[in-house]
Amino acid sequence: MEQRAAIPPDLPRLNPTVSFWQNPPSPLAHHRSTPHLPTSSDVLIIGSGITGACIAFNVLDHPSPPSVLMLEARTACSGATGRNGGHTKHASYREFIGNVNTEGEAEASKIARFEYECMKAVHAFARDHGIQCDSWEGDTVDVMYHEGQLAKAKNAVGEMKRILGADDPVADYKFWCAEQTKKTFLAEGSLGAISYAAGSLNAYKFGIGVLDLAIKKGLNLQTETPASKITKRDDGQIGWNVETLRGRLQAQKVILATNGYTVHLCPALQGVIVPLRGHMTAQRPGSLLPRTGLSTTYSFIYDDGYEYMIPRLHGSVFSGDIMIGGGATKAPHAGLNEFGTTDDTITDPVITKYLKDSTTIYFGSNWGDDHPDGRLRQAWTGIMGYSADGFPLIGQLPNERGLYIAASFQGSGMVLSLLSAKVLVKMMHNDDNNELDRWLPRAFRMGPDRLKRKFRGRLHTVAPMDLEVKSQA
Predict the structure, then answer these.
(1) SS3 of 251, please?
(2) CA distance 23 to 17
C-alpha cells in the first residue's frame, strides 16, 4: 500500500469510460463562459463536480460577490460526481464506534449528524431550486452476509441510540431477520438486514444543475482547461500563479476541489490523499423483479467489502435498471492496484464480471431470466479520493495563505460535499466562529497534523467497522 500511495497522480485522462449518467452529455459539457481564458480572478475553483459547483454557488450567493473562475480539465461535472452510483447514503453506524474511540462521543455524534444533515440538504437543495435530477428520498437496506459484521452493526446502533438518544433520527435504524429480508427485500441467503433513511438521485444532473445556477450568478466556467501547476506569486503580492494548457492566470484565492487528483497540484499531500478507482455498472433487471422497480436502495455487506445498488425510479429513463458498484476487493491482490491510479479510461474485467454476476447471487430465484438484450447495459470507472485518516480535508492549507481545499470524500461525496462547500466558504469569509464549531466535525478541518498521517488503506469502507483504529500521526 505504501508504494501505491506514493504514485503521483496524473491529470484527468482524455477519453474516459462512458458513464451511464453522462450519456448523452449535458449542453453545459463543453461550456466556456468566455471564448478566452481570463488572466486573473478574485477566486479560482479547480474542479467542477458537486464540491466545486456548490463552492461557486455559495461564494456567488452574496451581495457584491468577487469574480469567480472555474477550471475543469475535461467536460463539466465529468469526474467522480458524474460517474458515481447516485446514492445519498450516510451509513454512519459503520464508522461510529471507530470515531468514538479516536474522536470521542461528542465528535462521533457530530460526524454522524453532519452526514445525515448533508444527505437531507442535497435533496432539499434540488427541490428548492427546481433541479430535475430524479431526486428520491426513502429507506435503504444493508443486507448482511457476515455474522461479525451483523453483530458489530447491532452494537454500533445500540451505542448511537445511547449517545444520541433513541428518538434522534440520526440513530433511527431497524433490523430485519433473514426471513424478513428475503420476503421484503427479495435478497436471498442473508443473515438479516438493517434499514434506515437514505435517498438517490442522478448526481450528474444535480451537479450540472448547481453549475447552471452558479453560471447565472456570474461564474466563469472554462471546461477542457486543465490546471497543470500552481505557485505563489513572486512579485510580493498575495495570490497564486496558475499554469494551464491555455495560458497563465493569477488569482487571489485558489480552491482545490479536485478530490483524487489533488496531489498533482499540491505535492505536499502525497500519501495524505490517495486516488482509488471505483467500478460501476448499469444492469437491466431480471424478469421476476418488480416491473415498477425495487422500492429501496441497497448495500450488500460481506466479510471483506460490500456492493452498493440503486434502482432507477419508475418513470425515469431505463426505469427499473439496477445501478450496482463496488467489487474492489474481488480483483487480484484484493484490489491493491485500484489504489494510486487515475486511469478511468478502462475497467478491470475481473471486477466488472463480478459485478455483473452479483445481481443474480444476491437476488437468487427472485431474479428470473435476464433481459433479452442482456444483463449488462454499461460499465465504467471513476476516481475517488481517500485520506489517511478517513475524513475529508476542508480549509486553508497550512502556511499557504489563500490556498484552500475541500477534497477526499472517501467515496461519500453525496453526503459530505454540499455542507463541506458551505463550510469552506464561511472559512474564506473569516466566518469561522463558535457557531461553525458546533456543527463542523473537528476531524474534517485541514491542519498541520493531517499532513503527517500515513495512508494505510480505506477506512470505514472495506470490511465495515473492522477498522476501529485509524492511522495515527
Answers:
(1) strand
(2) 11
